[in-house]
Amino acid sequence: MTAGKVLVAYATRYGSTKDIAEVIADTIRKRGIETDCMDINTINPENMSVYDAFFVGSPLHLGKWLPEAKEFMQFRRDVLNKKPVFVFTCGITLKDKTEHILKKAEFALYEFSQYVKMDEKEFFAGKLTIADLNETDSQIVRIAGVGEGDYTDINTVNKWADGIADKYLKAQ
């Protein structure tokens, strides 16, 4: 397909998903494709028809996508289902891509997969800085025994976005 314009939409709590979304957007732009990268909460639904493809991402929070990301998928399904949709999920637990962890991450997608077809999906490790967390999230992280760190693999993100560009997107 020829892509005139791509939207990389993301939900985020502490910035890791935004960082990954920006890497994806930059990778697609390097292919000569006009690309917008926006927080889901700022997207005007009336403007979505100008896009030829969508990347949509959310972090895992307690094993689920953020509510605003799930709602975006559900309530914008009419537009999304007319174009290619590439989904990415981020989370600190994804640093260890065991079968169990990946099944849990896949399950998070089930909540909206009945509404929106996904052409491709990927799971990326993110970053966690405990000092940045609100009190509730900080307690959850401590109970779960999750350690902080930046496990983002920019090369993996670039490779995924490049692969999608090769397979689905061509500059006009």
UniProtKB/TrEMBL annotation:
A Pfam family assignment: Flavodoxin_5
GO process terms (BP): heme biosynthetic process
InterPro entries hit by this protein: Flavodoxin/NO_synth, Flavodoxin_dom, Flavoprotein-like_sf, Protoporphyrinogen_IX_DH
Residue ranges occupied by any Flavodoxin-like domain in the UniProt entry: 6-165
Single GO MF descriptor: menaquinone-dependent protoporphyrinogen oxidase activity
Domain of life: Archaea
Protein name, entry field: Flavodoxin domain-containing protein
The species this protein was found in: Methanoplanus endosymbiosus
